[in-house]
Specification:
With 205 residues, this protein is an alpha/beta fold. The protein contains nine helices and five strands.
């Protein structure tokens, strides 16, 4: 009797796909009146474009939800850690999108300190009753990927992560307005990547 086998590469692809989906962390589904707090530095603020072209504004259009742009240019994780509690109390968000650490990298802050500060932020967000989506910041080198500490934090706190978009956009001059900031196309791509992550994690139906 003749048997048919699936090519090895196809089996490998299915295995990787399954591993990825099985290891992804989930978020509670956001309600129509939930607020999303986009917390971060200049990449959240939207330096390089009009406010209407920043990623939080585009994300609000994609989700149909209120997205608060809480980006502060030049902010480090130490500064963000101090600023965060007041915003959590003010907006009581259903979800916080956390993108911090890029300025720490530029200022050569030890990775252990960056990770510790981000961990405290995540704990603060979760203790407030909000969910967290973590966004990775890249290494300080040409064509660098996101620092490994972001994936480590995502696993430690059981939260989803958009690990690649910022690092990938940093490598594409056509998506940038200067050395470290994006143009309209770049922020659009950033918002779309985060939107897809919200869908895959279950936050958006």
């Amino acid at each position: 009797m003749k048997t048919h086998t699936i090519p090895g590469l196809f089996i490998l692809f299915i295995s990787i796909l399954c591993l990825s989906s099985c290891s992804s962390h989930k978020l509670p589904t956001l309600k129509s009146d939930d607020v999303i707090l986009a917390f971060g530095d200049s990449l959240t603020a939207g330096v390089g474009v009009q406010k209407s072209e920043s990623y939080p504004t585009v994300l609000a259009q994609l989700t149909g939800l209120q997205v608060i742009n809480a980006g502060v240019t030049g902010e480090t994780t130490t500064e963000g850690l101090k600023r965060l509690p007041e915003l959590l109390n003010k907006y009581k968000p259903g979800l916080v999108i956390l993108l911090e650490g890029g300025n720490d990298v530029l200022q050569k802050v030890p990775e252990s300190q960056i990770k510790a500060n981000l961990a405290k932020m995540i704990q603060s967000i979760q203790n407030s009753g909000s969910a967290v989506l973590l966004v990775g910041a890249p290494e300080k080198k040409l064509f660098g990927n996101s620092l490994e500490l972001y994936a480590e934090l995502a696993n430690e706190f059981n939260i989803p992560i958009e690990e690649d978009i910022v690092a990938n956009l940093m490598k594409r001059l056509s998506m940038k307005s200067d050395y470290v900031h994006f143009n309209q196309q770049g922020y659009q791509a950033m918002a779309e990547a985060i939107y897809k992550q919200l869908i895959s994690s279950g936050a958006i139906n």
